[in-house]
Amino acid sequence: MSVARQVNHHKRSEAEFIKHAVGLLSQQVWCWGRDVLRAEGNWLLEVGFTRIEPPAHRKKCSSVYTLELPQGRRVVLRGFGVFYGDSQRGGVFLPRFKFRPKFTTDARLECPPWSSEDLPKLSVPTESQRNCCVSLTLDLIDWIRTYESNIVELLGIEYRRSTLAEWDNVKQPVIPVEEMAPAWQLLGVEISEDFQMLFPR
User: Fold this and answer.
1) What whole-number distance in Å separates Cα of residue 85 and Cα of residue 97?
2) For residues 80 and 100, what is the distance between their CA atoms, to the nearest angstrom?
3) From which domain of life does this come (predicted)?
4) Which of these, 41, 34, 37, 67, lies nearest to 146 by C-alpha position?
5) Is 55 left (phi over 0), alpha (psi -120 to 50) or beta?
6) What is the DSSP letter of 123?
7) Which helix (H) or strand (E) holds 188?
8) Cα–chain-centroid distance for residue 185?
9) 3 state SS of 135
10) Is the pLDDT of residue 2 over 50?
């Protein structure tokens, strides 16, 4: 069954959608953290991320990882969420435990986000900003899907299985490795069909 047909077969309610998306993003953030600690070397650095270590006065914070992409785009990974910026459209931040995208006209982060307080002014997009916000969110989701597909292709499915085996998650079931990339793809399809689910009503 194709991804699109799966969505039509069972259309999730808004609450189901958000719960699933929060679980998927939380699992993904865990995986990025394990990729940093990979025994053979920091995988994020190997695929082109830049690590910014915290200054002395923020030493309790973890490093910030930023990846510059073609055409003025970038991804910034944090334990509390992920930022995606595009020089033409602005930026979007996906909070780890809410999955409600927040929009900013800033495509770059002036300050490394050591904590959520360091992020630029973020808000629910206005009507005129929603198309940009949704397209940025979909691009970010597609980037994550590609990242996970590459993990399996380049490091092997057993590598990702081993990272998930270490996750002591009691709030929601672990999404199997084989379903992670397809789950991101499916999420993108659902948003394309009804982007209103992203925004509180």
Assistant:
1) 20
2) 13
3) Bacteria
4) 67
5) beta
6) B
7) helix 177-193
8) 12
9) helix
10) no
